[in-house]
Amino acid sequence: xxxxxxxxxxxxxxxxxxxxxxxxxxxxxxxxxxxxxxxxxxxxxxxxxxxxxxxxxxxxxxxxxxxxxxxxxxxxxxxxxxxxxxxxxxxxxxxxxxxxxxxxxxxxxxxxxxxxxxxxxxxxxxxxxxxxxxxxxxxxxxxxxxxxxxxxxxxxxxxxxxxxxxxxxxxxxxxxxxxxxxxxxxxxxxxxxxxxxxxxxxxxxxxxxxxxxxxxxxxxxxxxxxxxxxxxxxxxxxxxxxxxxxxxxxxxxxxxxxxxxxxxxxxxxxxxxxxxxxxxxxxxxxxxxxxxxxxxxxxxxxxxxxxxxxxxxxxxxxxxxxxxxxxxxxxxxxxxxxxxxxxxxxxxxxxxxxxxxxxxxxxxxxxxxx
Length: 370
Hints:
Elements: E1 2-6, H1 18-32, E2 36-42, E3 50-53, E4 56-61, H2 67-79, E5 85-89, E6 104-108, H3 117-120, H4 125-140, E7 144-147, H5 150-158, E8 166-168, E9 191-195, H6 204-217, E10 222-226, H7 232-243, E11 250-254, H8 258-267, E12 270-273, H9 282-289, E13 294-296, H10 302-305, E14 312-314, H11 320-332, H12 334-349, H13 353-369
């Protein structure tokens, strides 16, 4: 097939995250199996206009906000009639290809924004986005959709999507799980890990405050934080760490390499994930594969990626005090921690990228034959 994929950023984008990792793995496997794939994405400072990555073509148009119009223009001028299938990924704003493209179309929706608007966008755009989202979802409700979790599937049903039209394709990870949990070498001191871009919707400050509360009870605790901090919220978190009475026990590493990421996950005892909302929470599964269970807030996506008391802990309340309580529980209960470590590795080992792709491909082929 010839597949045209609309999405606002690709894996090379400075803001790329878990969704772009999945897209890259799916796209390169589609090419491996003989399909042609073109991605229409937004450009960024210093980006190439076009390039081929792992066999698929990436065309970068406009920027974060103009890519939707530029993609329409590019499609109309160069690609109209070319694809056998359009994949339209919705991440904040839809491309609304159903208004101008007649080819068969699948929507790819990892998560809905909803309350994230109020964390990531300034007023009045945040309120505008929040109010418009249900409208465009209603307009799109008759489309077939691929998503990655039961939480997002239920979310979509709230806005009129038919349950049988929404297919869940499980996530996969590109990090090799550890083979023997007994050989896992953790830091000497009990270590709490925070990993990922420091943004307001990730609520990183909650993690730092929870660590500070737990540190009062267990003095040997330490915390490691890795991820970009290049916006006002990031600077706020860094200022808080700098002024913390425990600043000597909080290490900020900035953005790290893939190798360092794996090392941090292997050597830390737990990872904290406190997002406002996720499609799944890929970082949870990646850490699990390295024998590091997660303590997470009870929100969409994270409650899918953690099996309560088997692979990690889901908080009863989404507040730092509850997070600190769960840190203390695991730091003082070695048997429970080992149980979660083993369960986490077992669960994560079942989520391979190849399984994810085969599920994705099976649905695409079935959709094409309907």
